[in-house]
Structures are given as structure tokens and as C-alpha cells.
Amino acid sequence: MTLLKLLKINKWVGGERILKDISLEIVEGEFIAIIGPSGSGKSSLLYIMGFLDCPSSGDILYRGKPINFAEANTISRLRNEKMGFVFQFHYLIPELNLIENVMAPQIRKGISPKEAKERAETLLVRLGLKGKEKRQVFEISGGEMQRVAIARALANSPEILLCDEPTGNLDSKNTEKVMEIFEEINQEGTTIVLVTHDLSLARRAKRIIEMRDGEILKTTPLNGAL
Ligand SMILES: Nc1ncnc2c1ncn2[C@@H]1O[C@H](COP(=O)(O)OP(=O)(O)OP(=O)(O)O)[C@@H](O)[C@H]1O
Predict the structure, then answer these.
(1) By C-alpha distance, which of 130, 205, 122 is closest to 157?
(2) What is the pTM for the complete model shown?
(3) Where does the record place the ABC transporter domain (predicted)?
(4) 18-76: per-residue pLDDT in tens?
(5) Atom of ligand 1 lying closest to residue 195 CA
């Protein structure tokens, strides 16, 4: 089943066409890596996939339904309920402790505090943070912060996890931990799109999309491409 379909997506920024006629289909359960040189449009494409930015032209379908960027409420509900995001910087809320950070998106969705707390606890344990649930964000390491960010991204059991250089600030040991978590949740059925500079990480995905100058240069293997 196709989860996300992009059809002839273009994005213009300040007179520059940064995405050029991008067509792409993401099937449920895929693990896709997007690679390419700096400035090739990887992040811009990921943002559009996550409805964080709107295209200048082209169509997007989520589970076959056209996305209308003018419907802000529908878009934000889809984003909150179906999508998870992990960025290079964790964007955790410093005023909240770790468990509260993971509870926050669930509370926003209307889940009861009791249920949200239980799920947050389970996720933090799963991500190796047992016993640190009540710590403040500044009381844990960078690798741990990124794992809390992943727990938060998984809090609402997203259908798709969109990750922009999630290991960009991590050492090799923490990078490995994060990649193992991604592989694990992908095996459990979560679709993943990972933007990375690192070819060795990209090779762990099931499909690699290579970008250059706002275009898809190559998709490996070729079968999923439109
Ligand atoms: N908000 C913006 N304003 C102006 N130009 C932008 C903006 N966002 C992206 N661009 C331009 O669009 C192009 C693609 O940027 P993008 O961040 O998508 O590339 P990238 O492949 O993710 O790069 P990097 O690997 O360095 O993060 C670049 O030329 C960039 O300068």
C-alpha cells in the first residue's frame, strides 16, 4: 500500500528552483535513505514529505488522499497523528523532564495523562533510558537526548518516521545505537525516511534516493521509482 505519493513537486525559494519535478512513491514498510551533496535539496524534500513546508507546484497524496495545504487543521492533525520527526538537533523542551517530553505529543493528541505516562515509560526503557525518566534535558548526554527525541517521535505510533541527519551530532557508538533502533522499528512496520550525508548509513536502508541540484539523480534499487 502506497503511503505517500509526490507528483511533479517543485519548490521555488527566492527565485531559485530548489526542487525540480520530483515524483516519488513511498510504500508502507519501506526504509528509504536520501543522500546527496550539501544544498541538493534533501531537507527541503523531507520537509515537504512531512507537510512542514508546502510545494510551489505539484501534488501530494497520503494514503491516496490529496493533501490540501490550505487546510491547516487537517494537515497538523495528520502530522501529529501519523508522522514522527527526528532532526539533527533534538528540540526537546528544557522546562520538561524526559518523561514529560515524551508525554507531550500524546497529551496534544488527547490521550489521558495516565496512558501517555505509561507509553512514555515503555518507550524510554526501550531506548535504554530506564531510571533516567525524571531527569532534566541538561542532565543527560547528547546521545541520550537524541534517543529521547526518538522516543518522543514514536510516542503516537507514527506510520512514518522522517529523520533529517539524526546522527549528525553523534559519535560512532551512539550513531550505531540510533541506527539499530531505526532498523528495529522498521522491522516492526514503521516506514522510515532518513536524510544523511553518510553513505555507509544510507546503505542500511532498503532503498537509496540520490539527489543532485534539486533532482532525483538515481534510485537504488530502481523498482520503487515512478
Ligand atoms: N528557507 C530557505 N531560503 C533560501 N534558500 C533555501 C531555503 N531552504 C533551502 N534553501 C536552498 O535550497 C537548496 C536546498 O537546500 P536543502 O537544505 O534542502 O539541501 P540539503 O541537501 O538538505 O543540504 P545540507 O546537506 O547542507 O543540509 C539550497 O541551495 C539552499 O540554499
Answers:
(1) 122
(2) 0.92
(3) 4-226
(4) 999 999 999 999 999 999 999 999 999 999 999 999 999 999 999 999 999 999 999 99
(5) 22
Q: Is 146 in the pocket of ligand 1 (CB under 6 A)?
A: no
Q: Compute the distance between CA of residue 152 and CA of residue 124 in angstroms, rounded to an integer.
A: 9
Q: Which atom of ligand 1 is nearest to the CA of 11?
A: 12
AA letter at 83: M
Q: Is 196 in the pocket of ligand 1 (CB under 6 A)?
A: no
Secondary structure letter of residue 67 according to DSSP: P
Mutate to test the pocket of ligand 1, among 17, 43, 196 (most ligand atoms within 8 A of CB): 43
Hey, what's the torsion of the CAs at 125, 131, 137, 143, to 10 degrees? -60
Domain boundaries defined on the chain: 2-221
186 lines ligand 1 (CB under 6 A): no
pLDDT at 10 over 90: yes
15 Cβ closer than 6 Å to some ligand 1 atom: no
Q: Cα separation of 140 and 161, whole Å?
A: 24
Specify the fold of 2-221.
Rossmann fold (3.40.50)
Instruction: Tell me, using a 6 A CB cutoff, whether residue 40 lines ligand 1.
Output: yes
Residue nearest atom 26 in ligand 1 by C-alpha distance: 38
Question: Strands, DSSP E only, in the chain?
Answer: 2-13, 16-27, 31-35, 57-62, 65-66, 83-86, 160-164, 191-195, 207-212, 215-220
Q: List, for residues 149-195, the tens digit of each pLDDT value.
A: 999 999 999 999 999 999 998 889 889 988 999 999 999 999 999 99
